[in-house]
Every structure is written in C-alpha cells, then in structure tokens.
C-alpha cells in the first residue's frame, strides 16, 4: 500500500512481511487504528507491506484435494507453514516486486515459522535482510496457565480430540463463525467487555490499561480465527520437552516418519539473518526467560529489547493502546 504520509513515495520500497500468530489473521494488525497499527506505520515510512495469513485461518482455507471439513485438511502445524508456506510466500513477493531481499516481522507463531523456514531452507537467509521477532514462540516451557495445565495430558491428546470433535480444528467451524459475528455485540457492554477481556487475558497475560472497550469489541469480531488442533498440540509438546523440534508422533510413529525414536531438532544457531527480539515482562505465553533463550541461541541476534511497560502482555503486541511507542517504534527504527 501507498500512504499519503509517506515521506518519499517514489523512493526505495523494500517489501516487509508482517506475520500474525496462532488463532489470528492479518486483520488483527489493523484493530488499533491507523495512527498506531504496524502496517500503516510501515507504509508511512515507505515500506511495501505484505500481510501474511497462516494456513487454516479464514483467508487460507482452500486445498487442491481436501475439503475444509476433512481432517486431512487440518493435518498440519507450524512445521508445514515454515517448511512449505513461508518459503513460497517469500519467493512470490520477491518475484512480484523484482526485489532481491525483504524484511520480516513475526509475532508469536509468526516467529516460529520463520525460524523453521530459515533452518530447513538455509538459502532463504540470503533473501531476508532483517527480522523482528515479537515474543517468538519457540521455547514455551515457562508459560503459565492454562497451557501449563494442558501439558498434564498425554502428548497427542488435544490433536486427537479436535480430530474427533471438530474435524481437526481448534474450534468447531460454525461456532467460530458465530463468535466472530456476535462477539462485537456481546463484548460491547461495560460488564461483558470486562468478561471478554478476562478470557483473553487469562491466556496471554492481564493488562486492562492497554485494551479499550472499543478495541475489545473489534477483537471479538476477528479473534479467535481458525487453526488446527495439531498446531496447539505441537506447542504443548514443546512445553513438556523444552525442545525446539518437529512434531512427536510417539516412538513407533517417529521411527516410521523420521527413522529415529526422537523427532529431529530445529536449530536457531544456523539463522544468520540480523534479528531483533522484543519481549514483554507480563507475557504469560512467551516468558522473558524463554525470549532470552531464543536471543542467546540465534546465530545473528543483534539486540533484545524489553517493552518498557511492565504490564505489557503477549497480545499487547497487536492490541495495546500504546503499542506504537512500546514496540512498533523499535521495529521500524531497526528496519530503517
């Protein structure tokens, strides 16, 4: 997009991918208003902005062979997004724009799929100039409830349950559509807004000061979005094993698929793309400890920045009233 605030609209327009996390979509980057949302701010500074949508969300539910109601359609996690989808997106953007490099901003799972792509397709690193990892969901062993509670169940439980009940989706499709349709109305009142906020905060970290009633209503109209149960199950496996690795199919399944009893590990060290890590003190999903671990293991992590506001939480990277000052200004300064 071109912005009427762009300083030099005819100047160099580097492509930048902005990638959301689990149960979100590209819509979530646009909910805080044009003066604060990241895509508009990037366009204002002259970037050619591309908003990614993960496999399975409302914008990405077509397949050449499978119906969206087939469990085979939903048999994927962020592994497939990193190995297959993101490389195709990068190549498509560079081919379309005629540029040799682009930059990448990923929130949560957006960081997960990037690091997998850079590990499994090392040649892609030459095509990415810089990367910003906001609360990168790579290590999640310090996550708080409810993820911690869910790890008490055997590996594969959640994926099997969603296959049985929802056809492989995290949420039943019609229920998800109903929530997005009526969510803005249900979350518009004084009391109901607080309840809607509490549901989100219980998963990602509490921060009432940064989420207005208007924003809560907008969030309810777009989130949660569709995702596979296997994706969540893959994260739960990491929370148990504290290891950045491929999906664990059990001893027999691993041997049949990988030729080993343990899943192959991914490597952060091989990533040579210049990277900025942003983290929040009040993040209940990706803790400061886990973010620092990512920073230490990355092959070319330039810097790590803690959001100044201590109450800032995981989803505040998309929804907070002060997200421009707290996070996005750091992103843009790093990319320029």
UniProtKB/TrEMBL annotation:
Keywords: Glycoprotein, Hydrolase, Lipid degradation, Lipid metabolism, Signal
Pfam families in the cross-refs: Abhydrolase_1 (PF00561)
Transmembrane feature ranges: none
Signal peptide as annotated in the record: none
Keyword Lipid metabolism attributed: yes
Keyword Transport: no
GO molecular-function term, one example from the UniProt record: hydrolase activity
Domain AB hydrolase-1: residue ranges: 15-298
Biological process annotations from GO: lipid catabolic process
Recorded superkingdom: Eukaryota
Entry similarity comment: Belongs to the AB hydrolase superfamily. Lipase family.
PANTHER family: LYSOSOMAL ACID LIPASE-RELATED
Designated name of the protein: AB hydrolase-1 domain-containing protein
